[in-house]
Structure formats: structure tokens, C-alpha cells
Amino acid sequence: MFPGPLINSTTNDFVHVNVFNNLDEPLLFTWNGIQQRLNSWQDGVSGTNCPILPRKNWTYVFQVKDQIGSFFYFPSINFQKAGGGFGPIRVNNRIVISVPFPKPEAEFDLLIGDWFYDDYKKTRSMANTSLTAYNAIPDVILMNGKGPFGYQMTREPESFTVTKGMTYRFRISNVGSVFSFNFRIQNHKMVLVETEGSYTNQITLRSLDVHVGQSYSVLVTADQNEADYYIVASPKLISTNDSSNLVGLGVLHYSNSKSQVTGPLPIGPDPFDLDFSMNQAKSVRWNLTAGAARPNPQGTFNVSNVTLSQTFILQGSKAEISGWPRYVINNVSYLTLETPLKLADYFVNGSGVYQLDWFPTNSVNDEATRGVSVVTGNHKGWIELVFNNNLDVIDSWHLDGFGFHVVGFGIGEWAPESRSTYNLFDPVVRSTVQVYPGGWTAVYAFLDNPGMWNLRSQLLQNWFLGQELYIRVHNSDPNPAKERPPPENLLLCGQCKFLHLKLEFLMVLIELLAHQHQLHN
């Protein structure tokens, strides 16, 4: 299936996903926005899990604890996301929790993303030179794996059938690698209701910017004449026209429609108008009165009077290291190891694998370098993450394990005085946030979830070439209620596999010696 099958769950469900790897290289899946409470063992990134080897399978088991909302999954290593493998995740409310809008007639999952015609391995090889690593442009934008309406290579465009007078929920995710896009439906308004597990203040929109890795829910009422209408996803920061491959096109089809969609596309905002995009982002606010996964209102958990225990100021940029193109954070490009950090942390306290806190969290190194970036996050402390964007594209940052409060956006370099512009009253909580070129974004997160958590750019080339680090949130209490032990089916690799073999050998040796001792006596 392309996209992959829907994972349709309810708050607090345990989800079992048995992944069979029929590729010719190792594979991992990650669950974008699922917080994996007390259980980073299931997060499915290179720092937490050994990969599933070719012709093998492995079962993920995780709980969607205290969450609701719209998310998606995708392959997390080896640039495989550029080859597909992504699919939608819904986490529905429990029946006893009220939803802040009437039940829609139906729900539609809409995964939209840019796409390269070339095989992902060929696209991956483009990372070897600066020209292609920094300037690769996708070929087309797909909607649920289907090409644009009217495009010569499209067999059948994506289409959704609606009945006049009814309201529908669209769960929209940007599963692409490069482009943010503006989403709109011809002649129809949208009511924004949810993003990545948070109910939002309900605002009516003509169009919505969706950045790489983000998910939104909008309500659309079929209140127009019974006809067919364009569904449009046009990329940001690039010029296109109505017939461009890089404009995703689908169809909203009224059940009694007798006419095909025709005419010019609905006009969206100027793709280079970042003021529009930032102002819209600032208007996406938390619904303080609605409950989400729990009956108490979301606004019970506010940030108006928090005491920060840490501030990380992180600058995303690019650099050449030993002649190779890299993306860097504070001039450090992440070096992926064979031994996952979480396993090294558990078995040998990180010894010989990584050095905790050598990464500069508040300064930029003079020289670009590669390294294993692992930093301490204070358990049950509030952290302020500031993302500065020195790139000429809209970057997109994601934190596994948490939802963060998006408190501020700005243009120029962030400074402590920028805090005076923060929204501390009703900042929306999500897990992926955009950072505009030449600008900054600030978020607050409460680090109450012990584990090894990935902080990364969602732009696939950036991530693949080193724009990531890990935040180690440690709770020394061995009580499994505080953090779960490794699963029984834990995969071993790297130094941990060698260590495990040594331990097994020692155990066998001890048993043999004990047996000989008994015979001797």
C-alpha cells in the first residue's frame, strides 16, 4: 500500500506493529508525534534502536498514552522516507471525553508531500556533492501517493466524495522531504480544530500553510453548488504556475456532481510572503477550555509562570567538513554510530560510545566538525529551545518524546529581549515547528518523560546530513513505573551485541565451573 495502512487507535491503546523488512538494507520506522511515554525503546530512530536487518522482522509495541490527534509514521534511516513507507496515525478520543466540535460525517486522511522520480538510493547519493546536496528539487507533489489532477503521468488523482450540507474532517500531514506547502480547497473555507494532538482555537481559514513533518485537522462543510472543486497544495518559496508538477492537485467531488473540475486554480498567498505565513502561525493557539486525552481542560497545563531550568540556543546551517557537504547545529554535524545511544546508555552508561554534554548548547563552534551530540535534559525541568535558521529555506524542527509549547517566532537573530514578544497565555502544543529563513522560533517543553530523545530537522536531506542531536532525560529511579526496561525482543548491535556475547560466554563459563565443582565434591 502507498501510503501505508492507517493505524487507527484510541487514547491509551497499546499498538503492536510487526515490521517485515523485505528491503535489501536495514530499516527502522518512527512514529512522528507519538510520545512513547517512559519508553524511548520503541521510538525507532538510530539513537534508540538497532535496525531491522533484511529478511528479518521485528514487532514494535507502544502505548498512545494520554494522547489524541493526527500523526504519521515513516522510515527513519538510510533516506528511505524518500521512497515512501509512510502512513497515517489517528489517536481518537475515549468515548467519555467530549470533543470540542460536532462529530463529522466522515474523516479523511490526506498525506501530501514532494516526491523525487529517482529511486531513493539514487536520490540519497546526491548528498555526496554540495551542488546536489543543497539544491535538490523534487519533481512532483503527491496527494496520498497520487499525482496531480491533469498531469500526464497521473493515472487517477486523489478524490474525496462529499454530500452537500455535510461536514468532514480532513487530517492533513506534510510527509515530504523539502517543501512547506499552502493547502486550500476551491470555494470552501476550513475551520482549524487540531494539530499534532492539541485542540486549537477554532479559526476559519481560506488556506493553511503546512510545513514538513506537521499534521493538522480541519473541518470542511460541503456548502457550495454540487460540482467538483480543486484541492490544492502549492509549495512555499518557489515560483509555480497552475500546470506545474510541483502543485499537488486533487478533487473534492460532490456526490450529485455532473461536472468535472475546470478553470483556474484558487489563488493562494504569495509563496514568498513570509509575513503571511508567520502571522498565520501566530494565530494557531491552544484551546484552553477543551479537554484532550483527559477530561480536565488543556489550559490546566499552562506556561505563564514556569521557571526555566535550561535554555538551548541552536543554530541550523550548512558547512563542508573534510570536503563533504553537511548540515550542522552550532557547527556540529551529527555522527551516526553503529551502537544506538539508548543501548549504550543502558548497558555501559554510554562509556566508549558518546561523551555526555560536550556539544555546545548555547554557542557556535568556530570550526565545523562531526560528533555524537548528546546533551542532558533536566528531568522534570522546563527547557527553552531556541532555533535560529541560517538557511535560505523554511526549516522544520521536531522533538521526539514530548509536545512543546510554541511561544514565539521572529525575524533576525534571537536575543534574550525577544522573550518580551512570547505568547505565554495560550501557545499551542505540538511536536514539529517551522523556523523561517533568517529567523528564529522558541518553544518550551516540560521534560517529564525519561529516555533518549531525538531532536532533528524534518527536512530529509538536513537530517540525513547531520542536523540532529539527542537529549538524554535521565531518572535514576530503577522503578519500571518511572521508565520501562528494554523489551524482551530487544535487538542488539554494535558494541552492545559484542558485550552481550561476552556476558553470555561468561554465564556459560560460570555454569560449567559450578557443574565441575559439584562433580568434584
From TrEMBL:
<dbReference type="InterPro" id="IPR011706">
    <property type="entry name" value="Cu-oxidase_C"/>
</dbReference>
<dbReference type="InterPro" id="IPR001117">
    <property type="entry name" value="Cu-oxidase_2nd"/>
</dbReference>
<feature type="domain" description="Plastocyanin-like">
    <location>
        <begin position="340"/>
        <end position="476"/>
    </location>
</feature>
<dbReference type="GO" id="GO:0005886">
    <property type="term" value="C:plasma membrane"/>
</dbReference>
<dbReference type="Pfam" id="PF00394">
    <property type="entry name" value="Cu-oxidase"/>
</dbReference>
<protein>
    <recommendedName>
        <fullName>Monocopper oxidase-like protein SKU5</fullName>
    </recommendedName>
</protein>
<comment type="similarity">
    <text>Belongs to the multicopper oxidase family.</text>
</comment>
<dbReference type="InterPro" id="IPR008972">
    <property type="entry name" value="Cupredoxin"/>
</dbReference>
<dbReference type="Pfam" id="PF07732">
    <property type="entry name" value="Cu-oxidase_3"/>
</dbReference>
<feature type="domain" description="Plastocyanin-like">
    <location>
        <begin position="110"/>
        <end position="257"/>
    </location>
</feature>
<dbReference type="Pfam" id="PF07731">
    <property type="entry name" value="Cu-oxidase_2"/>
</dbReference>
<dbReference type="GO" id="GO:0016491">
    <property type="term" value="F:oxidoreductase activity"/>
</dbReference>
<feature type="domain" description="Plastocyanin-like">
    <location>
        <begin position="1"/>
        <end position="94"/>
    </location>
</feature>
<dbReference type="InterPro" id="IPR045087">
    <property type="entry name" value="Cu-oxidase_fam"/>
</dbReference>
<keyword id="KW-0325">Glycoprotein</keyword>
<dbReference type="GO" id="GO:0005507">
    <property type="term" value="F:copper ion binding"/>
</dbReference>
<dbReference type="InterPro" id="IPR011707">
    <property type="entry name" value="Cu-oxidase-like_N"/>
</dbReference>
